[in-house]
Amino acid sequence: MGIRFERGVAPIELLLVAAIAAVMVAIAATAWQTDIRRTRTAEVVAASMRCRTTALQYFATRGAERQARPLPRCDVGLSEWIDSGIVATSGAIIVRSRVPGAEGFIQLTPLGADGLLAKLDDGPIRVSGWRCGPAIDWPGVDVRFLPESCRGS
């Protein structure tokens, strides 16, 4: 009398494989949603970058001339992920994201020659770079969904 082996798969083995597959799908779905939000938010950031030229032209004028003109409109273009954009009196460009799960405001702040925030004075403002990140005064977009280049640096 030898040992008999049963053929087939036991129900517990099937349940174990199904549970492992379900966990893997849940992890992949979460990562996929985060990646989609990050890609769509990158589109919002790219649209806000288009406003830099308009803002630079406005702030390159002297203080008295600048005060006599209204703030320029920020033309962020048409997109289902972008609601609006403004150029604030501080020189910051603020764009509202409508990306589901990553709603909020993104801010581009002009930096002066010293690497600090550009100062509004009577002369033209010299901008050496821009700091990009979640808006300071309004609800900002979660940093996880911003591109690496737009995380407050």
SSE arrangement:
Blueprint (H helix, E strand, L loop, with lengths): L10 H39 L1 H9 L3 H6 L13 E6 L5 E5 L6 E8 L17 E6 L19
Antiparallel strand pairs: 1-2, 2-3, 3-4
Give the total of domains: 1
Mean pLDDT: 82
Distance between the termini: 76 Å
* Global shape: rod-shaped
Q: Count of DSSP E strands?
A: 4
**Element-by-element helix/strand order:** HHHEEEE
Radius of gyration: 25 Å
Low-pLDDT sequence parts:
none
What can you see in these coordinates?
The structure is a single chain. The protein is of the alpha+beta class and 153 residues long. The chain has one domain. It has three helices and four strands.
List keywords for this structure.
single chain; 153 residues; alpha+beta; four-stranded antiparallel beta sheet; 3 helices; 35% helix; 16% strand; rod-shaped
Describe, in short, the structure shown.
The protein has helices spanning 11-49, 51-59, 63-68; strands spanning 82-87, 93-97, 104-111, 129-134. It has 153 residues and is α+β, with helices and mostly antiparallel strands.
